[in-house]
Structure formats: C-alpha cells, structure tokens
Specification:
By secondary structure, the chain is an alpha/beta fold. It has a domain of 102 residues. The protein is 48% helix and 9% strand. The protein starts with a helix and ends with a helix.
Amino acid sequence: MLSGVVVELMNKLAKVEHELAQIKKAHIGPKSERIKMPGPNVSTPVPTDQRLASRRANARSKTEIQTLRTDHKVPEAQRTCPACGNAKLRPIGKGRSSVVFEFVPARFVRHEHVQEVLRCGCGDYVVTAPGAPKVIEKGRYGASLLAHLAVAKCADHTPLYRIEKDFARQGFPLKRSTMNELLHRASEITRPLSARLLDQVCARPVVQADETRLRMQNDGAGKAKNGFMWTFVAADDNGDTDVAYVYAADRSGETPKRLLEGTEGDLLVDGYSGYNAVAEVSSRRRAACHAHLRRYFHEALATGPVAQEAINLILALYRVEREAADKKIARTPAHLKLRRKKSAAARKQLKAWLDRERVRHPPKSPISTAIRYGLGQWDELGRFLDNACIPLDNNASERSLRRVALGRKNYLFVGDVDAGTNIAGLYTLVATCEARAINPFAYLSDVVARVQDHPAQRLDELLPGNWLRARAA
C-alpha cells in the first residue's frame, strides 16, 4: 500500500514539475525547439558558389525592374574652365551613372472601355465591337482588384479594415462590405480550379494532412463555434508541391474520410485518432511524424534530461535525409537503399532505448508519455523505410497551416461555413502558387479573367503548375 502512495506522489510531482516547466518556457523560455546537438551539425554551410549564384540572381531581378532615367546637367556657372576661360567643354564618355531604387506606391486606374459601333447604310446591319471582359456581371471591378484582395487576405494576412484604410489613402474609398463580397466572388469564380487541385492532391500516392482551429461567427443557429481548416499537401511526379485546404464545421474524421475515400498510397499525419476513419474507406497506410515524436521528448527535457538521448537518436534519422539531399538522390531508389541501411540501424537503437527506459520513469511523467507515444506509433513511424517519397515528418502540412494561424490572429474568424469554404479555396490557390515560386497576384489576375470562359475539359491548363509551364513556353 505504501508503494502505491509513493508511485502516486511521484506521478503528481512529475506532472507539477512538467506544468511548471511549460509555464516557464511560455513566459521566459525560447520558443524554438532547436537545441545544440552533440556530434556533427545537421546543417552545413552554403557553398560559396551557391551564395554567389544567389546574389547574381538577385542582381538580375533588380535589373529587370522598370528603369527611369534622369539626366543631370552641369550648372551653367561651372561650364567655364577656371584655368583658361574656355566655355566649350566636351563630354567624357556617356557620363557617370549611379542607381537609386525608389518605391512607387500602387495606384488605381479608371479604365474606360469604348466599344466601336458600326452600321450599314441600308439600315439593316449594326455591329458592336467586343467589350472588356466582365469578371462580375454588371460589376465595375476588374480581375486585378479581385486578385489584389485575395493576395492581401490570404498571402499577407491583412484584415479588410486595414485594406480599407490603405485604399482611402490612395483616393479610392471602398467599403469593407464591398471588399468582402468581392473576395467571395473571387473564390466562387476560381472554385473549379481549387476543387480540381484538391482532387489531384488527395489522389496522389503520398498525402500529408493536418488541421487547425478557425472560429466562425455563425454556426447556422446564430452562435459562435470552433470550425476547423484542414490542409492536404502532396508532391506531383516532378516533386513540386501542391497545397489544398478544406473548411469544416468540426474536427471529426468525416472530412479526411470523405476526401480520401477510394484512394491508395500513404497518409502522413500526427497521432490524432480522427484519421483512423480513412482506413475504413481506402487502402491508404498511415505513416507517423518524427517531428511530433521529437517534440514529446523535447517537452520532457526539463524534468527528464535523459530524453536528450532519444532526441539524438531521432537526429541520426535526419542526418541520413541530409546525406540523401547532398547526394541529390532524394525520392529515388538509392535514397530508399540508404534509408534501409543507415536509418534502419538508428531505428533499432531507438527501439531498444524506448524498451529499456519505459520501466524507469513514473507512468504519468512527460518522458513516459513520450515513450508511450513512440511505442504506440512504432509501425507507422517506420513506413518511410518502404517508400522513399514518404518524408520523415509532417512539417510541410504544419507549415501550410501557419498562414491560417497568422490570418486567425489578424482577422479572428470567418462568418460561417460558406465563408470558411470560400477562403479555403483562395488559400489553396495562393499557397500552391507560393509553394511553386509563382507570383500569386500575377496568377490570379490572369485566371480570374479567363476561367469562366475556359473550356471545362481543358481546366487543368489553368492550374498553377501547368499555367507556369505555359508562361515559360
């Protein structure tokens, strides 16, 4: 009986120590999980030739900016030689040139379209020239304005009231309510593209998924409620990443179940049980995230320094990935062979460590929680040994949710499920453009004006990847 009391007190002490450590970390500790590791560093310095190439590329980009020339003449008082009095000075070369980069604020243009109207003298024939493309029926706002609002909201996370103030400073007063309607209209216009991109992402062999809270003001009954933004990330055959978002009224597994039904491959997610439903309707195998495993041990460091040993063993797996990247064999059979040789050995050491340490700590202590998580997810954590295209972690989908977290901090919530669905569609296109190094404003300005008249059977031509290849060609 006394031993039971001791165990209970040890569990309570471990819990209190962990809570105290988390409070200290939240208030005075570093936010990053990065810590100094023994042995060689994972990160290697960027080679000199790569740094020079990056600088040259930046310099070339600056030379492509529109150039304005201003000629500065020598003042009349200085155009006479003080030594001999000669007033006919001759120029030396083309002059001395220097460059100063200035900023010209964006401006609005009132674009007036005049359609020519012709008639025949017989009075039986009248013809009118085609007019400006109408993005919104009977609307006065063009595709570039809708694209600007979408990028400001979904890429720069700017609330509409700030955009309203900016527009007013430029002499173009536009109400927030109008901007809100324009954003919804932009999402509706581009919905065939965002929906098609979502279908493509969910059908790929390796899909990463995650979710985060995004509150809505009206749940249908006039009450505020937590909604959730889901993200699905997958690379195409060329290794280029596409990102898709879906908004749902809850966090149940029905969302990934509905989207991934009938698909094949692997699903890389965290330990949330909501993804278990995917196995009921698809042949996807679940893969687990080593970053989540590492995070459990990192949080246990304050009360269990021995957790550093597990972190070091997880680090060995990432060193193998860095080696594959340096050898330029990532996602190839050679990469898989390297994993099975080196990563499998590191996993064997980690498994032995977990089995050895799980009986040495109080059951409810943070490090015991981390150990149970690792053992409970062990098979899923090893899926990367079967497929070189499965990443070690789910960080790509977590990064894709940062834009939702930043937006949530600025604009706080969405109106309802329909509003959440609309912003999810715009997020899909903007995030995929950024993942593929495409200017989202240039892309949306083009496709918003074209997609309504584009043949449905050729819709894939307007997806970001194909759009970029067509522009390059």
